[in-house]
Amino acid sequence: xxxxxxxxxxxxxxxxxxxxxxxxxxxxxxxxxxxxxxxxxxxxxxxxxxxxxxxxxxxxxxxxxxxxxxxxxxxxxxxxxxxxxxxxxxxxxxxxxxxxxxxxxxxxxxxxxxxxxxxxxxxxxxxxxxxxxxxxxxxxxxxxxxxxxxxxxxxxxxxxxxxxxxxxxxxxxxxxxxxxxxxxxxxxxxxxxxxxxxxxxxxxxxxxxxxxxxxxxxxxxxxxxxxxxxxxxxxxxxxxxxxxxxxxxxxxxxxxxxxxxxxxxxxxxxxxxxxxxxxxxxxxxxxxxxxxxxxxxxxxxxxxxxxxxxxxxxxxxxxxxxxxxxxxxxxxxxxxxxxxxxxxxxxxx
Length: 349
Known about the structure:
The chain is an alpha/beta fold. The protein has eight helices and 19 strands. The relative contact order is 0.11.
C-alpha cells in the first residue's frame, strides 16, 4: 500500500485532533494507527472506536490512546502468505499494520488489494526488439507499448502484484533505459524491482545466470509481451500439488482438417473421421520452476526455456502442463496489437 504513512498518528494527539484527521481523509471505514515517538505500534483507532469512547463519557481533549484498540490485529513483516490473506478475508479484516521485530510499523497491508499472496519471485523477459511491430517499436520497447491506458508490461506487473508477488527482476536489453526510468525500483507500486541488463541476446532464461540470488524458492518466468488473465493462484497450487520441478502454461491450438481422415491397419480401413479437429497445447510463455533448476543454466550463454524443459525431462524430473482456461494473447504482430486494444476494455484481471 502506497502512502500508508498518512494513516499514522502520534499517541500525543487528542480525540478532537484525530476526528479532524479522519474527516480530512474523507474515506469510509478509515483506520488510523497510533504510534509512539519511535514509530512503534500502540493501537488502532476508527470513528467507531471514538463514538464508543464518547458514549462512555470520554472527553474530546483526552489523548487518543484512551479510546484506541490496543489489542489490534497486526502481522510481522515476512509472515504474510496465502493462508493469512484467506483468513483475513473470511474474518472481514480489510487493513492490517505490518510491523518489524521491534513492533515498528513498516507498511500497511490492504487485504482487498490482493487476490492472495503467492511466495514467488517473478522474472519478466523484456529484452526483445519487437521487430515485427515496427515502426511502433522504433523508439519504444515492445513491452512499453500502451494497451488501453498503460504499457503491456505494467498490465503484467499489476496483475502479478495482485497475487501478492513482491519481488521482481526485469530482464532488459533493447531500449531498456525506458523501462528502468518508468518503473524505477518499484517503490511507487509497493514492490521491489531489480534489472538484469543483457549485453547480448540470451534467450528466455539465459539472463537468469546473471542473478546472484532470488528471494523465493519458486520462480515465475513470464514473457513481458503477453496479455493474459491466467489464474496464477491455480497455476501455482497445481505446481505444488503435483510436486513438480517445472510447470509450463499452455494454450490450446486447434488444427481443422478439411477432409475425411482414414484410420488404417495396413491397407485395411478400420474407421474414418469426417473433417476432424485435432487439439495441441502450445507453449504460452509462462513458467514456474524450483529455484534449484537455475543451477543448470550456463553462465553468460543463450539459453531458452525449452532448453530447460528438455533438461528436466532428460534428468527424469517432473515437468507438467497447465492449460490456460482464460484469456491469452501474444502481442507479436500488428494485428495482435490491434486486437489487444479492442479486448482490453472487456478483460477482467
